[in-house]
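Hi support team,

I'm filing this because I wasn't sure whether my run with magnesium ion finished correctly. The job status page said complete, but I'd like someone to confirm that the output block is well-formed before I use it downstream. Pasting the exact inputs I used:
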Amino acid sequence: MFNQIIKKLRILFMKGKPSYIYKNKHGINKLNISENAIRVCETLNKNGFEAYIVGGAIRDLILGLKPKDFDIATNATPEQIKHIFKRARIIGKRFRLVHVIFYKEIIEISTFRSSPIDIKQDEFGRILTDNYFGSQSEDSNRRDFTINSLYYDANSEIIIDYHDGVYDLKKKQVNLIGEASIRYREDPVRILRAIRFASKINGSISPDTLKYIEKQKELIANIPQARLFDELIKILTCGNALKCLLEIKSNNLHTFLIPTLEETLKKTDSMNFLKISLDETDQRILNSKSVSSSFLLAAILWPQVQIEYQKNYKKNKNIYISMTSASDTVIEDQLKVLSIHKKIISDMKTIWLMQTKFETRKNKTSFRLLQNPKFKAAYDFVLLRAKSNDFDKVVAQWWTNWLESDDKEKENMLKTINKTKNKKQEHKCD
Ligand code: ATP
Ligand code: MG
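And here is everything the job wrote out:
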């Protein structure tokens, strides 16, 4: 409460004018900024335009995190930008942006947006088209959160801050710019973004911003499913995924993304598996390693697959049929809220189905497994399960040793396993 009053006084004092934050205060080391992004700013400047690095990159650099990408804001129009850069293409209809393509990096450039006077909205207030351009100050009002509305001038190394974003960042607080009820209506994805950024910066959401999440969460149903899917992947790869999912659940937003999450979080075993999977994902993100969407989704939905599998197996006693039908049921339920790319669905199903093959170690089957393009993913999945006691650790280690052996050794290992199995069978018969 006290913080909120201070915040309001500070905004009042700023009277719509920006604060200029110098290098010694914000602490960003220019060497941590993409050279391509700096080059794009310099080129735009040389052509007589303003250009700043904005958004997540500046937020993350202040926090000492490695930015995912670098976005630029300028007063040049998309056509002017395209004219300046050889390898540039205009993308988007609703929000026209320019991508400048470099080897291994794409720099996204947006033109300063104008105040929302002429923009086209649907019956709920959702913005449909928004291609009116304005000043930097107007653009800053159009961004979602104060911590995402910081403009870094690569030349002077000064940050221009219209909404006290650096202060909020130090307080680790997510604050929507403007009237929360209107801003969520304009774009309900901001509800999910608020939760994601709060988890990412390991902070909280301000009371005003939080209050309207509960009141307006139903608006999420209007978001196109493909955009919702993208947002789910961003949530799972935000670097603090479990905290983010728990926040999603405690705000009752899981029904729009992963309806089965509630049941998964109730069970200690499933929760343990989820924690181990997501901690590993966070580590990969921290080390700038790639994360596969199919693997991630396969992990999140695995506890539910197992529940369905057990139900099926009780009835038909067939491992393969039970797993196939469990996979189909879980995917079908998930598709009721989110559209998932066919290739991702097929990869998830393969990972799940291959789990049944790791239990039995047979000559032909084991060698055939190796040929499957999803083998590595399925094997990594086994290791995850072993870590959370959902798969026999000794068998998992056997697979690791088997993979490290040459073909001859592989065959011998399988023979030994089968001999032991046969002996056990004989003892049983005796
Ligand atoms: P990250 O890339 O780490 O997910 P980000 O903040 O850079 O985080 P982007 O989606 O890349 O997020 O968007 C870049 C910037 O564009 C944001 O920082 C914000 O200023 C603005 N922005 C993005 N999405 C919205 C939105 N839905 N409403 C208003 N502003 C937005
Ligand atoms: Mg970004």
